[in-house]
Structure formats: C-alpha cells, structure tokens
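User: For a reading group we're discussing how well predicted structures match intuition. Take HPP family. Before you show the prediction, I'll give you the sequence so everyone sees exactly what went in.
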Amino acid sequence: MGLRNEQLRWQLAKGLVQALHLERLASRYSRTTVMAVFNFVNGGLSIALVSFVALVTQEAFIFPSLGATAFILFYVPLAQPASPRNTLCGHLIGASAGLLSLYLFGLQQHPSAFTTGVDLARVGAASLSLGLTSCLMVILRVAHPPAGATALIVSLGLMPDPAQLPILMAGVGLLLTHAFIMNRLAGIPYPIWSQDTAAPATRVPLQ
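Assistant: Thanks. Here is the predicted 3D structure of HPP family, as structure tokens, for the group to look at:
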C-alpha cells in the first residue's frame, strides 16, 4: 500500500509537469524534489484561493483544519479519507458536533477558550465534540482526520455561530474543487463523490 501511494503521488506530480510542459523539471531534479515542490505549490495555491475569498467577503471561509485537508487531498488523493464524500461529511459532522457541544454546555455566547482560558465546561464541550465526531465518522464510514480539528475549532469557541456553518462548508467545497481540477489534470481519477464511484480518467504511465 505504501509503494502504491508513493507511485500515485509521483504520477500526480509527473502528470502536471507534463500537462504544463515542464518535463525538464522531472529530468533535472529527483522525484522527491519534484513532489515536494508540487505539494508546496498546490497546498499554497489551494489555501490562497480560499483565503482570498475570505478576504473579499470578510467571512470565515478559511479555518485551520483546512490545511490538513489540503495536505491529504494532494498527498494521497485516491485514499478514501481524501474523497469528496469523506471530506464534506467529515467536516460537517465535526462542525455540527462542535456546535451541539457548545449548546449542551451553555457556551454558545461565551468568548473563545483562547481568550478566557479553559474551564470545566469547555473541557466537557471539547471532549464531547471530538468523541462524537470520531464515533459518527466511524459509524457512517466517512473518516476524515482533519474533521477532528474542526470539531475542536468550533467547541473551543473560534466559530460558535451556527450561521458560520454554511460558510465553513463552502470553504471545504472550494478546496475540493481545486483538488478535483488539479488531480484530473494530472491524470489521477479523483472521484466526483466517493472513491467507489470515481469516473474513468487517463493515467500517466509510470517509469
């Protein structure tokens, strides 16, 4: 499995190098260097895109756990946790569990834990949000590790307003759109929804 993931990551980087007619990079530098640069560019571009939308709209399209999501989408794009289904459902579960925890512990109107510190109610909200997120992702088979961070972001009070939930999910959607375009451009059959329903795509031969 580790070798297959390594081959897929190289295929992704190499496919984009060929699509952009930058073959000299692949011949001049090592595979690790090309993949590192590829992830640097794509990770930076994806977050820059979401951040720019946040700048223009002054809404919370960008939040910390998107960084971990971006890494998964470009490092292991064919892993099930990187699929749109897992990514969208995972973050939705995490954010919803965080909001529920805030209300159950009466913290919906309180400043964030980073402002006032952590008390027993905040400990309970954080614990419940992460536990509930982990449980539901397993039951629903939509594991996406960064969603655990989303649950904590909400339950610690950084995004306590329910009106922010659609904006949060729109940020995830923007990131997925970028990942879909870049992966398909490289010839990787990145799925439209779930890995089981991935549409055929041209594969770049490995050398």
